[in-house]
Amino acid sequence: MAKAVRVHQVGGPEALVYESIDLRPPGAGEVHIRQHAVGLNFIDVYYRTGLYKAPSLPFIAGNEAAGEVVAVGPGVTEFHPGDRVAYYANLGGYATERNIAADKLVKLPDHITYEQGAVLMLKGLTVWYLLHKTFKVEPGHRVLIHAAAGGIGLIACQWAKALGAHVIGTVGSKAKADLALANGCDHVILYNEENFVERVKQISRNELCDVVYDGVGKTTFPGSLSCLKPRGLFVSFGNASGPVPPFALTELNNHGSLFATRPKLNDYVAKRADLIEGADTLFAAVLGGKLHLPINHAYALKDAAQAHIDLESRKTTGASILKP
Ligand SMILES: NC(=O)c1ccc[n+]([C@@H]2O[C@H](COP(=O)([O-])OP(=O)(O)OC[C@H]3O[C@@H](n4cnc5c(N)ncnc54)[C@H](OP(=O)(O)O)[C@@H]3O)[C@@H](O)[C@H]2O)c1
Question: Which of 95, 127, 280, 321 pairs as cysteine with 4 (C-beta 3.0–4.6 A)?
Fold first, then answer.
């Protein structure tokens, strides 16, 4: 029988309940997959706590995974039993098996493992669009990446460096600083101990950054704005420390005619052609040796609550997976 981690009432990690579920045969346009690896993401925490609203209760947590096709529903021609696939989709990911719309799936190339696939589809695609679409990182750009040793962070630092950027990262500990330096950062700032704005000014000799990628939110705002050169771009893409408080647009003027955006992955892969472009670019980067996926933690799916505790208490580095 299929098992899943469901949330019946939003709340703390104890809200994640591992239990049996009924799985009907795949409907029209759906594919039934047996999952081999599930990605752990901070967004899973937001849904669990209720910061992001799930459409209904109970819901199965989880937003990215990889596995093999078991059966296809009526009308599905692109996928067949035995295909190795991966996906990003809102909710339903923490499960041993599931049905999913075929248009969310991509086929995994032979040399991409299920574990890699399970961290590429949300974390990888997010880094892809942040560095290629939200702002096109080019040689010579100076970029600031907060939480540089996290799941998104280590991939973003590697890729920004490979694109020729000068990469400054912020991290919460010395051990994380070493990791960020080994993954593409030119400079690392311990933002719990040092004033990161002053350090960015020093490092850049007051020239500041072209773009700031901020997934931390509340505690790095408004400092992130002060790290940008005139007409730079503030990319607020997450809230690990809590949401950015409302602010006056004149702040952007005061800091030098800044631009600001609050992007989300859904809007960058809504069209299937965009999803395929992003996935193909990622697979090529991994297979070509440009990106090394730091999968540093693995938990049994039934231990999802412990994985959330570790993620929220900043114990994890790089990507983590759950094993069904
Ligand atoms: N908009 C999108 O499309 C999109 C898509 C995916 C992810 N995201 C966002 O990207 C960010 C990173 O996601 P992730 O899954 O890769 O997580 P992660 O970076 O692995 O974990 C979050 C990190 O944030 C830092 N942090 C700072 N203050 C914190 C606090 N008060 N509590 C917990 N952590 C804190 C910690 O690193 P230090 O100890 O080094 O400070 C922690 O390790 C999240 O904000 C997530 O929502 C956005």
Answer: 95
Please give the backbone phi and psi of residue 259, each rounded to the nearest 5 degrees, phi first: -105, 150
> Ligand 1 pocket check: which of 40, 42, 295 to mutate, most ligand atoms within 8 Å of Cβ?
42
Tokens of 2: 């299929």
Location of structure tokens 């969310």:
104
Q: Which atom of ligand 1 is nearest to the CA of 44?
A: 15
> From ligand 1's centre to the CA of 22, what distance in Å?
33
Name the residue with the closest Cα to ligand 1, atom 30. 241
CB-based contacts of 189, cutoff 8 Å, min separation 6: 168, 169, 170, 171, 196, 199, 200, 203
- Please provide the CATH number assigned to the domain covering 139-262: 3.40.50.720
DSSP string, 121-134: IIIIHHHHHIIIII
- Give the number of the atom of ligand 1 that is nearest the alpha carbon of residue 170: 40
Q: What one-character DSSP code corresponds to residue 91?
A: S
> pLDDT 10s digit of each residue in the chain, 324 long?
999 999 999 999 999 999 999 999 999 999 999 999 999 999 999 999 999 999 999 999 999 999 999 999 999 999 999 999 999 999 999 999 999 999 999 999 999 999 999 999 999 999 999 999 999 999 999 999 999 999 999 999 999 999 999 999 999 999 999 999 999 999 999 999 999 999 999 999 999 999 999 999 999 999 999 999 999 999 999 999 999 999 999 999 999 999 999 999 999 999 999 999 999 999 999 999 999 999 999 999 999 999 999 999 999 999 999 999
Which pTM was predicted? 0.98
Domains 3-121+269-323 and 139-262 share a fold: no
Domain positions in the chain = 3-121+269-323, 139-262
- Ligand 1: residue of 144, 193, 194, 314 to mutate (most ligand atoms within 8 A of CB) is 314
Class of the 3-121+269-323 domain?
alpha beta
